[in-house]
Amino acid sequence: MTTITIDQEKCTGCKICLSLCPYCILEMKEGAKIASQNPDMIPFCSKCGHCSAFCPQGAIDVDYEGAGPVPDWAADTIPSAGELARLMMIRRSVRSYQNKTVPRETLQKILDVVRYAPTGMNGQSVRWLVIENPDGVRKIAADTVEWACKLMQTDIEHPLKPILPMIIEAWERGEDHICHGAPHLIFAYTHKDNPVGLIDAIIALTHLDLAAPVFELGTCWAGIVQIAMNESPELVAGLGLPPDHMPMYGMMIGYPRYESHQIPRRNALQVIWK
Questions:
Q1: Which domains does the chain have, with CATH numbers?
Q2: What global pTM score does this model have?
Q3: pLDDT value at residue 75
Q4: How many CB atoms are located within 10 Å of the residue 229 CB?
């Protein structure tokens, strides 16, 4: 149950909250000078918190079961346009990691920020599975290689078949071209019947991808692992997720072995303006 509290002493009746609520949960009754709740509409609250976030007086508080705290650094200044641009352009997919694990507290801090990533209808449907033990990551890589070997023995046409022999041969030489020796894997998972689960997960992982360098960490999207997961119920079962939930995508994370110094070229911007 959502609880919306309006501080009557702080509310000035500016009606900003009314204009932002898509479900008419807040209202200004005839003759009233402050906002109030429409009790019939409260059950439709999506917990987006816009009424609270945009209130100039800080007069509104939205709370609900399962809500977490606001991170301590939420009051820090917003990065400049240049700082944000450099962060987005200099990040690289990391495929070479230090032989060093990341403290759980650091991963917790990152995910604590990433839970603010937008989700469809503010469903906040994304959950996280963190493989902390490097041996656990290596087992997933090994299981993925096993899946690849079985696939190569079939006549099934598959887009990965041209590169799988190289990956399998590298694994046999002791080289991991699946998870690239990353110490950790993070999976974003949702209920299997969630129609926007994949989209929500990709948005959240993109936030994770951008947040990691601020903590001196590198990431890489675990595409081959995810393809294997999509095609192998056994691999999914090995993750031990709650019933009826599926991994939407995985991401490697760890301390990069090398530092990125330059921003590489990308295709020129292509836009249709109308």
A1: 3-63 (3.30.70.20), 82-254 (3.40.109.10)
A2: 0.91
A3: 65
A4: 25
